[in-house]
Amino acid sequence: MSKYTSPLITLTISIILLAACTKKQAEEPKPVVPEKPGIQVSYAATIQPIFQARCAGCHAPGRKASAAWSFDGYGTVTANAARIKQVVLVSKTMPLGGTLSAADLQSIKDWFDQGMKQ
Ligand code: HEC
């Protein structure tokens, strides 16, 4: 064997092995990442629209129930979190004269549980 043959063979085998490995990796299915229970809920994207549609009619400043709770932005919700949780999630007396969908209730619960993200 010439003194160049052996390194050449080694190199060729290395390239073939490398190519085989790379191809194998590319073909392997991606591991399925289990979804976190409960999607991250934000005030701006999810909670504000629900409260705007379902609570503001009575609780916006100047409306008939604004004395009980004045709904006027993020701060007015977080500052009254305990009372809102109580009437929406526990006693379910609000929204007065109506009900929230199961999906809305879940979003509100998740939002409180996740620390009321703005
Ligand atoms: C149809 C009108 C109406 C709607 C809609 C409504 N409320 Fe009320 N809410 C009232 C009235 C009237 C009161 C005061 C009397 C009472 O507590 O029943 C009140 C009281 C409250 C209180 C004070 C409770 C306490 O014990 O201090 C909170 C908090 C509240 N509502 C939250 C909400 C939230 C959150 C929504 C929307 C999911 C909502 N309300 C929808 C009429 C309404």
TrEMBL record:
UniProt GO MF annotations: electron transfer activity; heme binding; metal ion binding
PROSITE patterns linked: CYTC (PS51007), PROKAR_LIPOPROTEIN (PS51257)
Source organism, top-level taxon: Bacteria
Annotated signal peptide: 1-26
Claim: Signal is one of the keywords in the record: yes
Keyword terms: Heme, Iron, Metal-binding, Signal
Annotated ranges, domain Cytochrome c: 42-116
InterPro entries recorded: Cyt_c-like_dom (IPR009056), Cyt_c-like_dom_sf (IPR036909)
Transmembrane segments: none
Keyword set includes Iron: yes
Protein name (database record): Cytochrome c domain-containing protein
